[in-house]
Amino acid sequence: MFESSCLCGANRISFEADSILKMRCHCIDCRKFSGSTNTNNLLVPVAGLKVLKGQLKTYTKTVESGNDMTSYFCDQCGSTLYRQSSMSDKAVAVMIGGIDGLEAIENGRPEHELFVRNRPSWMKAIEGSSQEEGHGLPKVKVPEAV
Ligand SMILES: [Zn+2]
Ligand SMILES: [Zn+2]
Fold first, then answer.
1. For the chain, what are the domain ranges?
2. Given pLDDT bands bounded at 50, 70 and 90, which one contains residue 141?
3. 114 near 137, Cβ under 8 Å?
4. Is CATH 1.25.40.390 the right assignment for the domain spanning 2-120?
5. Distances 80 to 6, 122, 140 between C-alpha atoms, Å
6. Which ligand is nearest to the CA of 5?
7. Considering only Cβ atoms within 10 Å of each terminal Cβ, which end of the chain, N or C, has fewer?
8. How far is the CA of 97 from the centre of ligand 2 (A)?
9. CA 113 to CA 31: how far, in whole Å?
10. How far is the CA of 82 from the centre of ligand 1 (A)?
């Protein structure tokens, strides 16, 4: 179980389940919406997602893979708490920075890096993490209930 909240505190959500996959994404969309070089996120079953406070806004864009990617964000402070791909209605990618508690970051060491072709030369690959040139994901099983 973990909780995630936005910068202003108007939105708070919780997830019952642990992550299925820990990812770092270097795609251009992640760059643009986060304002940083990349995102670090956790793939988590959507079953067990609870809204504790607020109502997140959504923004949907068709991405390179042809899937629609929807961002769930606070309309007051702009923090994106998670994203969902049309590829699966069973899992969401939770932005690690919104998760409360330092241990989320500590335990969130990515196992899989996506779009590494966009990774800047001054950033190293994460040791032991699988490397994917594009949007490929390893096969993971998403529980329907948690
Ligand atoms: Zn906010
Ligand atoms: Zn991305």
1. 2-120
2. confident
3. yes
4. no
5. 7, 26, 24
6. 1
7. N
8. 15
9. 14
10. 13
